[in-house]
Predict the 3D structure of the following.
Amino acid sequence: MTRDPAPLSTAPHAADLAQADDMPLLRLVDVRKYFPGRRAFLRSDAAAVKAVDGVSLSVRRGETLGLVGESGCGKSTLGRCILHLAPPTGGQVLFDGQDLATLSAQEMRQRRREMQIVFQDPYSALNPRKTVGSILTEAYRIHGLYTPSERMDKARALLDMVGLRTEHIHRYPHEFSGGQRQRICIARAIALDPKLIVADEAVSALDVSVQAQVLNLMVTLQKRLGLTYVFISHDLRVVRHISDRVGVMYLGRLVELSDTASLYRRPLHPYSEALLSALPRLGPRTGGKRIVLKGDMPSPVNPPSGCAFHPRCPQRRDRCAIEAPDLREHAPGRLAACHYPLLDVPASGEDAAQEGAARSNASKDNNIFQRTGSVP
């Protein structure tokens, strides 16, 4: 039986958050990840799969950055590049001002204590042959921390933090529900007192009501432990609930980066607009209509010239097929890779009605969340 998490200790990174230091915790500079083409062993000139193709962004300490986009857009690969689980082909990943590519194996091992991941599937993420206690103490054994008895005490404290009973420490993963397993995965992620956690579709495999419980747990842990999240998801409603800022990816590139409220109220990029138009609405749809994109996402092996989105863009012009737009600021704190961002278009009466409807729907969603404890 899952219970509410126990009160947590003072945030270990509170001093970091309190510093008047503008340096972001994480900074990506033109990060690329290319995989060899299918015929790479037969031909040296085989085309590479451009899973991530020049992403630059920064993540501030203590914030949650959401990454969204269609399946295959490269958001999960980017998450692995951040942790160097899949070393980038090019570009820089700067963590706490340090380029991870310049670290030795021993130095990277120490850095990994500050960077952790929560995987999508809690069923396959846990070793079925090990008890929960063995799973939670494994990181301590690898890094040579604490005595065996102290490790078990730490594991019990972790279970208490994430709302599980301490006597569960001797059970095996198959004895838990999906939500409880994900709590164990989160406990394992925070065991080494990390600064950054990459949550890769961390709640997509769970029931809606359980999603809300896990999301609330993550928010609580963030406040108490001073965590920074990169939250990867295809569920736009979940991302809106937990994120401070949102990055929208398309074909391995970042096409928009904005604070959450502004993005959901009025996106700058036509692709972001199409994604948000697909959100289910409570009650009859008012204002903007559903935008159906024609065609499939182009191949990352041979992306289109110019703007990668132009073959599917309902507002494309001749320039879009020739010149690739840069990701630049079109409004304070709002970046978009588009020659003709939607914010440059004067607001019409229909746009105003759509924004009002979006605010109304958001208010209804929040009220339902507060009443039921579930994500709409």
Notes: The domain at 14-247 is CATH 3.40.50.300 (Rossmann fold). The longest strand covers residues 49-59. The chain is about 30% helix and 20% strand.
